[in-house]
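Researcher: Re-running this chain for the archive, since the previous output was lost when a drive failed. Same request as before.
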Amino acid sequence: MNPIAFRQAMPSDRSMLERLLAAYRVAQDRPPQPERIAGALRAALAGDPFVRIWLVQQASHTVGYLTVTLGFSIDAGGRHAFIDEIFLEEAVRGRGIATQVMRFAEAECRKLGVLCVRVEVAREDTRARTAYQRLGFQDHQRSIMSKSLL
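Model: Regenerated C-alpha coordinates:
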Protein backbone atom coordinates (compact mmCIF):
# COMPACT_ATOMS: atom_id res chain seq x y z
CA MET A 1 0.00 0.00 0.00
CA ASN A 2 1.27 3.47 -0.87
CA PRO A 3 1.73 5.84 2.05
CA ILE A 4 -0.74 8.64 2.48
CA ALA A 5 0.07 12.33 2.55
CA PHE A 6 -1.83 15.42 3.56
CA ARG A 7 -2.00 18.79 1.87
CA GLN A 8 -3.94 21.83 3.03
CA ALA A 9 -6.65 22.63 0.48
CA MET A 10 -6.18 25.69 -1.71
CA PRO A 11 -8.63 27.69 -3.84
CA SER A 12 -7.45 25.78 -6.92
CA ASP A 13 -8.80 22.57 -5.30
CA ARG A 14 -12.37 23.87 -5.33
CA SER A 15 -13.80 21.65 -8.09
CA MET A 16 -12.19 18.52 -6.65
CA LEU A 17 -13.53 19.37 -3.19
CA GLU A 18 -17.00 19.99 -4.58
CA ARG A 19 -16.94 16.48 -6.08
CA LEU A 20 -15.71 14.94 -2.81
CA LEU A 21 -18.20 16.93 -0.71
CA ALA A 22 -21.04 15.72 -2.93
CA ALA A 23 -19.85 12.11 -2.58
CA TYR A 24 -19.69 12.54 1.21
CA ARG A 25 -23.27 13.80 1.32
CA VAL A 26 -24.46 10.83 -0.76
CA ALA A 27 -22.54 8.38 1.46
CA GLN A 28 -24.06 9.97 4.58
CA ASP A 29 -27.56 10.08 3.04
CA ARG A 30 -27.72 13.85 3.52
CA PRO A 31 -29.45 16.38 1.26
CA PRO A 32 -27.16 18.07 -1.29
CA GLN A 33 -27.60 21.74 -0.16
CA PRO A 34 -25.33 23.10 -2.96
CA GLU A 35 -25.76 26.79 -2.07
CA ARG A 36 -24.90 26.29 1.59
CA ILE A 37 -21.91 24.09 0.76
CA ALA A 38 -20.65 26.51 -1.90
CA GLY A 39 -20.69 29.40 0.59
CA ALA A 40 -18.93 27.39 3.29
CA LEU A 41 -16.33 26.10 0.86
CA ARG A 42 -15.73 29.62 -0.48
CA ALA A 43 -15.11 30.91 3.07
CA ALA A 44 -12.88 27.98 4.02
CA LEU A 45 -10.72 28.28 0.90
CA ALA A 46 -10.47 32.06 1.39
CA GLY A 47 -8.74 31.47 4.72
CA ASP A 48 -11.48 31.52 7.38
CA PRO A 49 -9.44 31.19 10.61
CA PHE A 50 -11.94 28.77 12.18
CA VAL A 51 -11.60 25.97 9.63
CA ARG A 52 -8.90 23.81 8.09
CA ILE A 53 -9.41 21.47 5.14
CA TRP A 54 -6.77 18.94 4.18
CA LEU A 55 -6.73 16.69 1.15
CA VAL A 56 -5.84 13.06 1.78
CA GLN A 57 -3.56 11.84 -0.98
CA GLN A 58 -2.15 8.48 -1.95
CA ALA A 59 0.29 8.10 -4.83
CA SER A 60 -0.39 11.72 -5.85
CA HIS A 61 -4.12 10.98 -6.15
CA THR A 62 -6.61 12.68 -3.84
CA VAL A 63 -8.61 9.94 -2.11
CA GLY A 64 -10.45 12.03 0.47
CA TYR A 65 -10.50 15.05 2.71
CA LEU A 66 -10.61 16.11 6.34
CA THR A 67 -12.34 19.22 7.69
CA VAL A 68 -11.57 20.48 11.19
CA THR A 69 -13.33 23.46 12.75
CA LEU A 70 -11.95 25.40 15.69
CA GLY A 71 -13.76 26.84 18.66
CA PHE A 72 -13.62 27.46 22.37
CA SER A 73 -15.27 25.55 25.19
CA ILE A 74 -15.22 26.15 28.92
CA ASP A 75 -15.95 22.44 29.43
CA ALA A 76 -12.96 21.51 27.26
CA GLY A 77 -10.70 23.89 29.15
CA GLY A 78 -10.27 26.32 26.26
CA ARG A 79 -9.62 25.83 22.59
CA HIS A 80 -11.29 22.80 21.06
CA ALA A 81 -11.69 21.33 17.59
CA PHE A 82 -14.49 19.50 15.88
CA ILE A 83 -13.87 16.90 13.19
CA ASP A 84 -16.53 18.31 10.92
CA GLU A 85 -16.09 15.89 8.04
CA ILE A 86 -13.80 13.02 7.18
CA PHE A 87 -14.37 11.34 3.85
CA LEU A 88 -12.48 8.65 1.97
CA GLU A 89 -13.37 7.28 -1.43
CA GLU A 90 -14.93 3.81 -1.33
CA ALA A 91 -11.92 2.21 -3.05
CA VAL A 92 -9.54 3.05 -0.17
CA ARG A 93 -11.78 2.32 2.81
CA GLY A 94 -11.01 -0.53 5.18
CA ARG A 95 -7.23 -0.13 4.89
CA GLY A 96 -6.52 1.83 8.06
CA ILE A 97 -6.35 5.18 6.27
CA ALA A 98 -9.10 6.72 8.39
CA THR A 99 -7.05 5.93 11.50
CA GLN A 100 -4.06 7.69 9.93
CA VAL A 101 -6.27 10.66 9.06
CA MET A 102 -7.51 10.91 12.65
CA ARG A 103 -3.98 10.72 14.03
CA PHE A 104 -2.95 13.47 11.61
CA ALA A 105 -5.92 15.56 12.77
CA GLU A 106 -4.89 15.13 16.41
CA ALA A 107 -1.29 16.15 15.64
CA GLU A 108 -2.42 19.25 13.73
CA CYS A 109 -4.84 20.18 16.50
CA ARG A 110 -2.05 19.96 19.07
CA LYS A 111 0.01 22.37 16.91
CA LEU A 112 -2.94 24.77 17.02
CA GLY A 113 -3.14 24.64 20.81
CA VAL A 114 -6.32 22.58 20.87
CA LEU A 115 -7.06 20.87 24.19
CA CYS A 116 -9.98 18.68 23.14
CA VAL A 117 -11.09 17.13 19.84
CA ARG A 118 -14.71 16.23 19.27
CA VAL A 119 -16.42 14.17 16.60
CA GLU A 120 -20.06 13.58 15.74
CA VAL A 121 -21.13 10.05 14.92
CA ALA A 122 -24.58 8.63 14.23
CA ARG A 123 -25.91 6.49 17.07
CA GLU A 124 -26.60 3.60 14.71
CA ASP A 125 -23.11 3.69 13.14
CA THR A 126 -21.56 1.12 15.47
CA ARG A 127 -18.55 0.58 13.21
CA ALA A 128 -17.55 4.26 13.36
CA ARG A 129 -18.35 4.49 17.08
CA THR A 130 -16.10 1.51 17.81
CA ALA A 131 -13.31 2.95 15.66
CA TYR A 132 -13.46 6.33 17.41
CA GLN A 133 -13.49 4.66 20.82
CA ARG A 134 -10.37 2.67 19.86
CA LEU A 135 -8.74 6.03 19.14
CA GLY A 136 -9.60 7.26 22.63
CA PHE A 137 -12.84 9.15 21.99
CA GLN A 138 -15.45 8.86 24.72
CA ASP A 139 -19.20 8.76 24.41
CA HIS A 140 -20.54 11.33 26.88
CA GLN A 141 -24.15 10.19 26.40
CA ARG A 142 -25.20 13.62 25.14
CA SER A 143 -26.73 14.63 21.85
CA ILE A 144 -25.56 17.44 19.60
CA MET A 145 -28.48 19.67 18.69
CA SER A 146 -28.40 22.46 16.14
CA LYS A 147 -30.44 25.30 14.76
CA SER A 148 -29.72 26.99 11.45
CA LEU A 149 -29.44 30.78 11.60
CA LEU A 150 -29.62 31.19 7.81
